[in-house]
Amino acid sequence: DTYAYPTDINTAEAEHLWMTLPVRTYVLEREGQIVGTYYIKENQSGPGNHVCNCGYMVASHARGLGVARSMCEHSQVVAVKLGFLAMQFNFVASSNEPAVALWQTLGFDIAGTLPAAFNHPERGYVDAYVMYKSLAGWQVD
Q: Largest Cα–Cα distance in the chain?
């Protein structure tokens, strides 16, 4: 209830969005089970290709176990290794309070608010945020 993808998306469309378009896609496993996945890609092409975009999904049974934090921390290292200078989340539903709080603790700022941009299945129209973090000057091994 926090992604702006159609709820009736089919497998082929989902695989294209999550596995084909991104530069890289990762999964996080614990005890042989996939507990999360994320992709990383250019946020824009051409003059904007130094900023990356990531999308994260956590299995419902793994929420609250630090999976999103681990993936976001990993994605920032990957981003720097790929040469990105910043990371931007284009559409974070304001109703996803745990994610907004986590991204802020990891150094992301709310760069903009999109009023009533997300139609939450229970809350109705809620704001969405554009969140941004500079990675310039980061050193990784």
A: 44
Distances in Å between the Cα of 70 and the Cα atoms of 2, 56, 124 are 19, 11, 30
* pLDDT for residue 1: 52
Q: Residue 67 in contact with residue 77, Cβ under 8 Å?
A: no
Domain architecture of the chain: domains with CATH: 11-134 (3.40.630.30)
Give the global pTM: 0.84
Question: Any alpha helices (H) in 25-66, and if so which ranges?
Answer: none
Q: CA angle at residue 82 from 81 to 88, to 5 degrees?
A: 105
* pLDDT, tens digit (0-9, with 9 covering 90-100), for 37-83: 999 999 988 899 999 999 999 999 999 999 999 999 999 999 999 99
68: tokens are 């999103």
Strand partners, 92: 129
